[in-house]
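Quick start: read one record
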Amino acid sequence: MQVLIFRFRQLLTLLLLPLGYLGYYYCRSAWAVIQPVLLDEASDLPGVSLAALGWVAAAGTLAYALSKLLTAPLIDTLGGRSLFALGLVVSALATVALGLGAGLTSLLIAWIASQTGQSVGWGSLIKIASHWFSYRSTGQVLGLASLSYLFGDALVRWHLGLLLDMGYGWRGVALVAAAMTAGTAVLVWLLLRTAPASDYRPLPLPSSTFSSGQRLSFWNRLRVLGRHPAFWMLLFSALGLHTLRETFINWSVTFLVAGSDLTAAEAARLSSVFPLAGGASALLFGWLADLLGPRLRSTASVAALLLLGLLLLGWGSRFGDLSRESLTWLLAGVGLLLMGPFSLLAGVMALDLGSQAGGAATANLTDGVGYLGGLLAGWGTAQLVVQTGWSSIFPWLALVSWIAALALLGYGWFYMRLNKTRG
């Protein structure tokens, strides 16, 4: 009977993790969807311009990254249902403030608050997943959880784009997004549990970094991780992959409008192809991660990122001359080649290094450092576009993709050496 109860709760957790994290994406994707409308109404919103929105995006990303780094010491002790729900509530309240904003300053403050609330979500999810599921299925479980910011993001963008078509305006879109997030917080609080209540638990994740049974404070764990080059390679690759992802999340709607005859609502719906294809990629790479094992997980990611660079170069060479069908296929290709490798970084690879005891903190550190690279996707993209035009960003993104591939190649090599040393 105890096993049956555990299996039921395990299945419920498997459903609630992506659903709960989807709540964060209603607040996050709302910003990308409303940006073209904010630019159209810039004359009524003091201080709003393309360059200014780039600063807002960069400030939000910086707040998100720093919040992840600051909460890393707490995430393995406090992370779980309570912190997961609290982050949703903070994000919802901040998005209400965003919808009530009257100018650039109020939009900036609201977006920073929203990003700060969102910073505890993924680490809390990792903490819960590590208690409910065996390490042998980590890749597939976290691949499924990644659907929350991939398939879920596609659904959210389609939904919010539909609201624009229905005449809600950017303020109405923000308020609806906040309401959806608040509802998700209620479900998480009522139904989700941090760990099984019974003695029946899944097989814990073995550590390649710490000795068996070793008990360390966060700062001592950080010193142990810092001695391993694989950890630094993981952080460096996170810088590149977050830069790529943040560019397509924050700016895809805007550069689709700039490079085609699409309206803002049409571009919002078309942009959902990127996370939709990314969801399929996360499932595929999660399955490959469990199939190949910890020491070979990075090989498929390296190959995908090398191909991604070539695809981005081709897109940049024909920017402005592409049909809607071509744009659809290009966005799908970017999602397939980028989001699988991205989903492994602060998920299964972080757990490989940090194990059940420190995996959530390792994930938050990886994400936090990665989102510092995302600053380039906000401020850097806006400045480059203002000076040289939208087509100039694609060669730069291709270079970032290839550098990230080299970093992951280094991670795989150092990780194999680490495991060989520890036997």
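Residues 2-422 form a domain with the Growth Hormone; Chain: A; fold (CATH 1.20.1250.20).
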